[in-house]
Amino acid sequence: VTTQTTTVALLGGTGDLGEGLALRWGRDTDHELLVGSRDPDRAAAAADGYAAALADRGHDASLAGLDNAAAAARASVAVLAVPPYHVGDTVAAVADGLDAGDVLVSPAAGMTRDGDGFHAHRPGAGSVTRVAADAAPDGVPVVGAFHNLPAGRLADLDADLGIDTLLVADDDDARETVRALAAGIEGLRPLAAGPIANAPEIEGLTPLLINVAANADGLHDLGVRFR
Amino acid sequence: VTTQTTTVALLGGTGDLGEGLALRWGRDTDHELLVGSRDPDRAAAAADGYAAALADRGHDASLAGLDNAAAAARASVAVLAVPPYHVGDTVAAVADGLDAGDVLVSPAAGMTRDGDGFHAHRPGAGSVTRVAADAAPDGVPVVGAFHNLPAGRLADLDADLGIDTLLVADDDDARETVRALAAGIEGLRPLAAGPIANAPEIEGLTPLLINVAANADGLHDLGVRFR
Question: Which residues of chain A from 143 to 172 reach within 8 Å of chain B, CB to CB?
Answer without folding.
Answer: 162-163, 166
